[in-house]
Design goal:
endoplasmic reticulum; transmembrane; 13 helices; mainly alpha
């Protein structure tokens, strides 16, 4: 089968995911105001606790038998290898780039923990439904592929909530220790703001440009009866000044109203809405003071260059040794497990432990942006190798 035909097959599921994501993002904006903040939270809870488990167990019960699970024995090992190699590469990134201590666990977790469930539940059946799919009958492929993805999701959840959970928890412990050390160091610093002497002025004089009052400052002396005092004597405005102030007062109020933040925001909205909607996340990542650009590049390189190449070697070696069933779709799922973006549950863990939430968002932004290109390219390569 031609390479470009496979590229078309691989790109269609990614485009479908992007279109659905763009539609969901639009519905969640204040411009549309269809999905409010509370509605999004409730919808996320329903999907996480009801829809996804129901889809996973229903697909497993429909096509999977105990004999099938036994024949898929290499998938848990394959997922363990993704965490193993990703963890080693993440540890190397940490040792070379030396990020802040509380970010080490997050970096290793994003390098090692892939999205082994949600994306596969979408991508694998969608590839099976394409006309040029190399995996045979679309109905059988879609049903079996959904079972593979569901089994991968169940196994991936176990690894993520054990291994990755401990990494993020360790980051939280380091962050709390760092905050405590900084607070203790700050408390030991002498307070110089109240280090006054008997010759300190009660209030420094005003500049020559200050008008409308006259400041008289008297320094304190040794005698208590001669304690320094300050008298502020307002200048009496002339009649001409008073009349000009009264005439300009309405104009001054109009200018204040025009320069008020709500007014400026309303006017600026029409000119900046589309620009800010596309650039806000990029500015956030560029202004992040605790996450170096090299760290982002390193994580992206690990997830989309090194791990997929390792995955090809692992799956081909396991196939040559006779460890895998003959189904090429099963081989494809094993390979794609090495090339998915970081697991979304990592973000949930950073919120749970209240650590590195901004840095996690930045990493997710860039890794999921690159994923649209990387997943398409690697899916094409995987199908070309297996066809």
């Amino acid at each position: 089968m031609g390479f470009w035909t496979l590229f078309e097959v691989a790109s269609m599921p990614i485009l479908q995911v992007l279109l659905i994501s763009i539609l969901g993002a639009f519905l969640a904006t204040n411009y549309c105001n269809l999905l409010t903040s509370d509605a999004r939270k409730s919808l996320n809870k329903i999907v996480f606790t009801v829809f996804t488990p129901s889809l996973m167990f229903a697909s497993l019960a429909k096509t999977v038998t105990l004999q099938d699970i036994i024949s898929w024995w290499f998938m848990p090992i394959n997922i363990g290898l993704t965490f193993f190699f990703g963890g080693i590469l993440g540890w190397i990134v940490v040792k070379i780039l030396r990020p802040k201590p509380h970010l080490e666990g997050l970096i290793i977790a994003t390098c090692s923990s892939g999205n082994l469930g949600n994306l596969l539940l979408i991508i694998v059946p969608a590839i099976c439904n394409e006309d040029g799919s190399p995996f045979g009958n679309r109905n059988v492929c879609s049903s079996v592929g959904l079972s593979y993805a569901s089994f991968s999701m169940a196994l991936g959840g176990f690894f993520i909530w054990t291994y990755s959970y401990q990494l993020v928890k360790t980051s939280s412990d380091k962050f709390k220790a760092l905050v405590a050390a900084q607070a203790e160091e700050f408390s030991k610093e002498p307070n110089k703001d109240f280090d006054a002497t008997s010759q300190t002025h009660l209030l420094s004089g005003y500049d020559d440009d200050d008008q409308g009052h006259v400041a008289i400052t008297v320094s304190s002396t040794k005698s208590s009866s001669d304690a320094g005092t300050q008298i502020i004597v307002p200048e009496e405005p002339t009649s001409n000044e008073s009349s000009w102030k009264q005439k300009l007062e309405p104009l001054h109020k109009i200018l204040e109203e025009l320069m008020a933040p709500p007014t400026i925001g309303s006017v600026s909205f029409f000119f900046l809405f589309f620009f800010l909607s596309t650039s806000q996340l990029h500015l956030m990542s560029l202004r992040s003071s605790t996450l170096k650009p090299l760290i982002i590049i390193a994580v992206v390189s690990v997830r989309y260059l090194l791990l997929p190449a390792i995955g090809i070697c692992v799956v081909k070696a396991a196939g040559n040794l006779g460890f895998l069933p003959s189904d090429p779709l099963f081989h494809f799922v094993l390979m794609i497990q090495f090339s998915v973006p970081p697991a979304m549950n990592i973000g949930t863990m950073t919120q749970l432990f209240d650590v590195a939430q901004e840095e996690c968002s930045v990493l997710f932004l860039w890794t999921y942006l690159v994923a649209s290109v990387a997943l398409t390219a690697w899916s094409t390569i995987f199908m070309w190798i297996l066809s």
